[in-house]
Amino acid sequence: MNTDLHRFMLASSVCPFRNLCFIRVNLWLVFSCDGEAGSYHWLMSETRATPYDSKIEGNVIFTRFDAALNWVRKNSLWPMPMGLACCAIELMATAASRFDIARFGAEVMRFSPRQCDVMIVAGTVTYKMALAVKRIYEQMPEPKWVIAMGACASTGGMYRSYAVLQGIDQLLPVDVYISGCPPRPEALLAGLMKLQQKISSERSFRNQKLELLEKLQDALS
Q: Running DSSP on this structure, what letter comes out for residue 141?
């Protein structure tokens, strides 16, 4: 099960602004070994005055907790690829080197729902498969999102029959719809960026810590 700590580690490794997360500490310590294995003692500590750092403004960042948490989450989406039809081929192409979904930190595709947070429904959803898709979605940990990729996953597509579910939104809450039959990899990347924009505006703490929020409000009232 992925945690926000894992998200932070992954986002820090893929985001070009990852160096802004670290605050430089001007502490210099020198260690010396006294000959015995595993035994160390202090030799010297930095006692000189630290000069003024004119770039201190670039080393310290003030932000909201929700903004930092959402930044981590949107840059480390772990997809659950539900490839049910021809849209799955375009999903595979998106993860290949030409389109490189790893630029968004979303290349960690897992077929274990316990390790995923965004389900990409790519293809025709039949009633026979619909309950399995719903079960996999329910096994995914919070927070989680859903992308309906293609016409079949969004509205049933050309299959107006008794055997095809007319849109996965009849079972799952869909966050982003991607049109096309099938959509190109660029369309999936555009939908992923739309999802990132939606995650950036979420109230993460308020939505997931309702009980704690109520306790804080009761304590302050």
A: P
Please indicate, yes or no, whether the overall pTM of this predicted structure exceeds 0.90.
no
99 residue type, one letter: F
- Report the side by side order of strands in the sheet with 79-83: 79-83, 118-122, 145-149, 176-178
111-130 burial, b if ≥16 CB within 10 A, otherwise e?
eebebbbbbbbbbbbbeeeb
Task: Give residue 139's identity as a one-letter amino acid code.
Answer: Q
Name the pairing type of β-strands 40-45 and 79-83: unpaired
CB 166 within 8 A of CB 155: yes
Residue 209 forms beta bridges with which residues? none
β-bridge partners, 41? 32
Q: Report the C-alpha gap between 132 and 2 in whole angstroms.
A: 22
Q: Of all helices (H) and strands (E), which one includes residue 122?
A: strand 118-122
Residue of 207, 219, 188 whose CA lies nearest to 96:
188
- How far apart are the C-alpha atoms of 170 and 137, rounded to whole Å? 13
Element of type H or E holding 82: strand 79-83
Q: What is the DSSP string of 28-72?
A: -EEEEE-SSTT-EEEEEE--SPPPP-TTGGGT-----HHHHHHHH
- Kindly tell me if the per-residue pLDDT of 177 is higher than 90: yes
Cα separation, 10 vs 151, in Å, equals 32
**Segment 12-36, tens digit of pLDDT:** 444 444 333 333 333 333 333 444 4
Residues of the chain above pLDDT 70, percent: 67
